[in-house]
Amino acid sequence: MAEVKTLHFESNPPPFGHEMRKCFSFDPEYINMNHGSYGSLPSPVAEAIKPYYAMAEANPDLFHRFTSIDLIRNVRERMAKFIGAAHTDEVVFVPNASHGLNAILRDFIWEEDDIICSCNTTYKSISKTAQYISDIPPHPEYSQFTILFPTTHNEIIENWRTYLQSLNEARARSAHRLGRRPKIVAVIDSIISVPGALLPWKEMVKICKEEDVWSVVDAAHSIGQELDLNLADADPDFWVTNCHKWLYAKRSCALLYVPKRNQHIIKASFPTSHAYISPKKRTGPNFVEQYEWNGTLDFVPYISASCALDFRAWLGGEHVINAYCHRIAIEGGKRLAQILGTEIIDQDQDFQFTLNMVNVAVPFPATMSSDFEIDMAFRRKLLIKKKIYPAFFYHNGKWWTRCSAQVWSQVSCLLHSYFPHPPAGSIPGRRF
Amino acid sequence: MPGFDLPRVEEKIDNIVLPPILKTIRSKTFGSEARELFMLDDEYTNLNHGSFGSVPKAVHEASELLSRYIESNPDRYIRLEHSALIDAARAVVAEHLGVDRDTCVFVSSVSAGIATALRNFRWSPQDFIVCSDVIYDTISSSVKEICQGEHRPQRSVFELKLPLSHTSILELFRRHLRSLRTQIQAVSTDTDSTPGKIVVIIESITSSPGILMPWQEMVRICRSEYALSVVDAAHSLGQEVSLDLKAVDPDFWVSNGAKWCYAKRGCAILYVPFRNQDMVASGVLPGLIYGSPSGISPTRFVWQFYWSGLMDPIPPISIIYAIKFRQQIGGEILIQKYCHELAVRGGRRMAEIMNTTVLDSPANNAEVIANMVNVELPLSASTKPSAEIQFLFSQELFETHKLFATCFVWQDKWWSRVSAQIYNEIGDFERLAKALIDVCGKITATR
Prior knowledge:
Chain B: InterPro entries: Aminotrans_V_dom (IPR000192), PyrdxlP-dep_Trfase (IPR015424), PyrdxlP-dep_Trfase_major (IPR015421). The structure holds two protein chains of two kinds. By secondary structure, chain A is of the alpha/beta class.
C-alpha cells in the first residue's frame, strides 16, 4: 500500500522570528500579519508535494484510481490520531470548513419547529447557511445567541446555559402542541474568526449534551493553533477544521469529524457520491465511502497535511510553535494597544480568549460606524501602500484589528503597523 | 517578483493571464512529438485522457508561477485581485461558449455543478427527473438522493438501446417526454392540482460507453415539450468544436475544464442563462461576499460563486492558460480534427486486430463518436464484472503493457473506451489492441 513519505531535514530549522521567513515564500517587502485568514504554505512543504503532482500527471489513472486513495487513507489515519479521534473512520477530508459544515447542516432532516442556532460571532457564510435552511421549507426556526466583548469565559458559559434552557422551554411548548419533540442544532465556534478569540467550546458542548442539543463545532481555526486536541474526550456531535489555516497544509484541505454514533445522520456528501446508498437500503454507516471521492479534484492538498506535520515537528513540535506564537500575540498586542492608546479585546488577566490571534481596538472616534468602505480603505492603505496587513472588523461599537502571530512574526511587526489617525474634530464617517 | 510589481490590477491581470511561458509555445506536429508538451511518464501511453485529463507542462508552469505569486502575499491576492482574475477566466470561457460572461461561474466539479442545479429546484411529488440508463454513477446518485423522502419527485429512465442513429435517439426521446407529459396532465386533472414539471438530465457525451449524443436537438425537444434541460456536458469543453450555447439555449449546462480542455483539476463551469438565475437561490455553499475590487457590483448570481470557503484559487484561473495554450499549438478546430479522426481510425483498427466491433450508429458513419471510441473486447459475456477482474485489467495494462484504457460491461458485452489525444498516434491503438488480446486471454484462462 502506498505511503506518504516522511520528510527529513538535513539542517536545524532557522530560529523563530524574521529568520523563519526563509521557510516561506513571502514577498520580501511584505509583512504578513493575517495568517488566520488564508494560511501560508511553507516552501519545504511546497517542495515535498511536488513528487505527488508529478505522480498525478505521469499516470493520471494510476494515481487517481489507486495510489491517491491509499495515500489519503494513510494521512487520514495520521490526522485522526492527531485530533484524538477514537477511530480513523470518524475522520474524512473535505475541501474546507464551509463545505464540511454545510454538508452536516443540510444532512439533518429538518422539520417544522426545529431550531437551528448560531451566534452573532459565527462566521458569516455559516450563519447564512443556517438562515438559508430556515428560509426553505419546512422553515425550522433560526435563533441567535449573542456574545459581546468584553466578556469572560464564565459569563459566556452562564449565558449559554440560560439561552439553551430558554430554547428548551420553547421546544417543550412545541412538543406539547405537536405530539413529538423537535430538535435543536447549535453551531458553536471553537475559535471565533472575528474577533479571533478562543471560546470555552468544550464546556459549551457539555451544556449542549445536558440540554439535549446537537453540537456542530466550527473549529476552522483549531488545528495547529489549539494544543492537545482530544475529540474522543470533548465528544462534540460534529467538528470541522481547516488544515490550510494554522497547520500549514496546502489550500484546500480540511477535516470533517463525525463520531460513529452520529454517522447515521450523514445522508449525502456534496456533491453526492457514486458510493451513496439510499438510507433505507443501508446496513451500516455510509460515511467514509461517500467522502472518498466527491468529483475529480486536486487531492494533493490532503496529502500535504502529513508533510505539514513533519515540517512542524522539525520546527520543534506543536507546543514549541504555539508557545512562541502565543507569546508574540500577547506581547505584541499589549505593545500595539499601548502605542495606539487603546485596548486588547481580551480583558481577562489570563488572556483566556487569546491563542495566536490578538485583537486590538483601532483609535477611531466612537461615532465611526461599521462601513464597508473603511475595510476597503484599510486594504488599499495597508496591504498595497504599506505592505503590511492584519485583518479588520467591527464589533460592539468599535473597529478592531486582528493580528495573527506566526513563527515568522516578531513584536516589531506589530509596531510597523501604521494607522492614520483622523484629525481631531473630523466628521464621523469621513472617507479617507 | 518580476513582472508582477504593477500597481493596477488590470495590468497585473495581463501579466498573470499571459505569462511569458505561454507566449513561447509554438505548434508541434501532433502525435508522439506532442508528448513532450505534456507531463506523462515517458514509458506510459495514456489512452484514457477522458477520465482525468492531462495538464500540459506550460499550463502547469504558468499555474506554479501564479501559486508563488499568491504565496508572496495571500491577503493582497485573495482580497483584492482574485475576483478580477475569476472574472477574466469567466470571460475567456464565455467567449468560447458564445455567451455572456455573467452566465458562467466556476464550480469545483461537474458533479458539484449538477448538484447545485438539482438542489435549487423546488420539487413536488408530481415532478419527474428524466435521465438515461447510461447516466454517470455520481449523477445517478444525486438523482436518487433528490428522489428520497415523501414530497420528492419521481425518477424516469430513458433507455438508450444503442447502437442507434441520432435520428432514432431523438424520436424515442420525444416520445418519452410526450408520454410523461400525458401522465402528468392526467394526474393534474384527476387531483385538480398544478401539473408537475419535467427536468431532464441530458448528457452531451456519455461516459461509459463514451457516446456523442444529439444533445443540442434534445434541448430543443425539451423546450418544445415544456421540459427543463440540465445538460451534463462534462466531456464537451475541448472535445466539441463550436459550442454555441446561446443558440442551443439549455436551462443549465455544466462542463469540466480539466477533462478535454487541459485545465487543472478542480475547474468546472456552470452556465445558467439569465432567465434562470433567480432560481439559484444559493450556490450550494452560500457565498461569503468579498469586496469587488473593481467597484462594479456583479449580479447576485455571480456573487454567490466567487467564494465558497477557502479553496485553491488556481484551477479556475488555469482555464485561461489552457485555452491560450490550445490557441498557440494550432487552435480548437485542428486539435479536435486530429483527435476525432484518430479516434475513428484507431477504433476501426483495434476492431480489426481484435476481430470485434466498434460501437457506432447502424450506418457506421461515426455519428456517435467524438474523440472517444468504444471497441468490443475479445472477452466472453460469461465473464462477469467484478473487483478482481477490474484489478486484473488495471494491473496488466499498467504494469505489463504500460498503457491504459477503461474496460467495462455494457449491454452484456465487454468494451474498452479509448480516448484519442494530440499526443496519441495510430500505433498506440494497435499496441492497446494487442495488449487487450493478451489480458483478455489471461482472464479467460483463469476462469
